[in-house]
């Protein structure tokens, strides 16, 4: 039987499913503070574990206090003074997502976890008022890959987080960019400086330094295979998909990035034939989102065509989205290594 194709899938997400899906992805389903291994040469990593653990504990203490006040006075307690948010800033591959997921697991519910793009899609699907109503019932909103790529997102997220934190919702986020620098190099951030500064005031920033742990002491990405070897790998692994790279790129353009996760449901290994460098920024950013969902689900990747480090051209890597592209290459490289080390499963 030939391998399935991702281009044959058109996943849909209903409003209730969007809310129910706001949990850490499979790779981080078991992430805990105790399973995070700080680099002994980077003291900020151990400090970040302590800061995140204290933040989660503070959410629990605040929830208990609010319950006591509600029982005494019959109403909700006012939101505590000071920042309601924790912002993990650092390069890619230092374990920020692990720490964010650990914070989510440690904090009391109800709680929600999603990527920035999933959050903005949620608001678009539900409407701003309904999204605020549903998320205001949570004690914690964890946002991974916090990025502001256009002025509309800046205004939307600023309003949303103001409403949620005023309602007593704690917010934890990860990003490769300090909150007062969001949007720089991507749009006229100066025109939206007030909104960006309003966002930054809602977070306590915790720096996480260090090299990319995914590649410490490990070889570079395995080289691309030939098309025949690619097809043989797809045939040898149960749950594999096989797609022509250009066709997949076109397919991703027809889906909102929030659907990329569901696109990969049940997939054990992704094979991409005749990979070429991303032709433009739009394709590049969609590939970044796709790579993130592959990594979240620990799905090995095998490719023919150009090597994965050449997926994004020099002009793109040196532009405003540099950190996103480097993160995607780092994650895809790790997944390509996984494909070499994982044994085949009989069909």
From TrEMBL:
Domain of life: Bacteria
InterPro entries, sorted: ATPase_AFG1-like (IPR005654), P-loop_NTPase (IPR027417)
Molecular function GO labels: ATP binding; ATP hydrolysis activity
One annotated GO biological process: cell division
Keywords tagged on the record: ATP-binding, Cell cycle, Cell division, Nucleotide-binding
GO terms under cellular component: cytoplasm
NCBIfam families registered for this protein in UniProt: ZapE (NF040713)
Protein name: Cell division protein ZapE
């Amino acid at each position: 039987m030939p391998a399935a194709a991702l281009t044959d899938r058109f996943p849909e997400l209903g409003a209730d499913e969007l809310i129910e899906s706001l949990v850490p992805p499979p790779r981080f389903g078991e992430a805990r503070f105790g399973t995070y291994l700080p680099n002994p040469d980077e003291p900020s990593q151990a400090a970040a574990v302590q800061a995140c653990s204290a933040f989660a504990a503070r959410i629990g203490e605040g929830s208990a206090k609010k319950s006591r006040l509600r029982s005494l006075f019959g109403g909700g307690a006012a939101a505590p003074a000071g920042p309601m948010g924790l912002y993990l800033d650092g390069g890619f591959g230092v374990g920020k997502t692990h720490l964010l997921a650990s914070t989510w697991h440690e904090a009391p519910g109800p709680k929600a976890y999603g990527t920035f793009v999933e959050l903005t899609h949620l608001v678009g699907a539900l409407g701003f008022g309904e999204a605020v109503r549903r998320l205001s019932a949570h004690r914690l909103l964890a946002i991974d890959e916090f990025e502001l790529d256009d002025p509309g997102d800046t205004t939307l997220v600023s309003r949303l987080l103001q409403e949620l934190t005023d309602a007593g919702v704690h917010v934890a986020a990860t990003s490769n960019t300090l909150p007062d620098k969001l949007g720089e190099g991507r749009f006229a951030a100066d025109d939206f400086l007030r909104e960006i500064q309003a966002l930054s005031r809602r977070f306590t920033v915790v720096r996480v330094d260090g090299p990319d742990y995914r590649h410490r002491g490990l070889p570079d990405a395995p080289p691309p295979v030939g098309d025949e070897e690619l097809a043989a790998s797809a045939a040898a692994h149960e749950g594999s998909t096989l797609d022509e790279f250009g066709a997949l790129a076109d397919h991703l353009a027809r889906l909102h990035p929030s659907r990329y996760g569901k696109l990969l449901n049940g997939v054990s290994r992704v094979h991409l034939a005749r990979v070429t460098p991303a032709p433009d920024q739009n394709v590049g950013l969609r590939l970044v989102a796709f790579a993130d969902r592959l990594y979240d689900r620990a799905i090995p990747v095998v490719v023919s065509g150009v090597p994965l480090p050449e997926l994004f051209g020099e002009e793109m890597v040196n532009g405003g989205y540099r950190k996103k592209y480097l993160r995607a290459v780092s994650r895809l490289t790790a997944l390509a290594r996984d494909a070499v080390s994982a044994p085949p499963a009989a069909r």
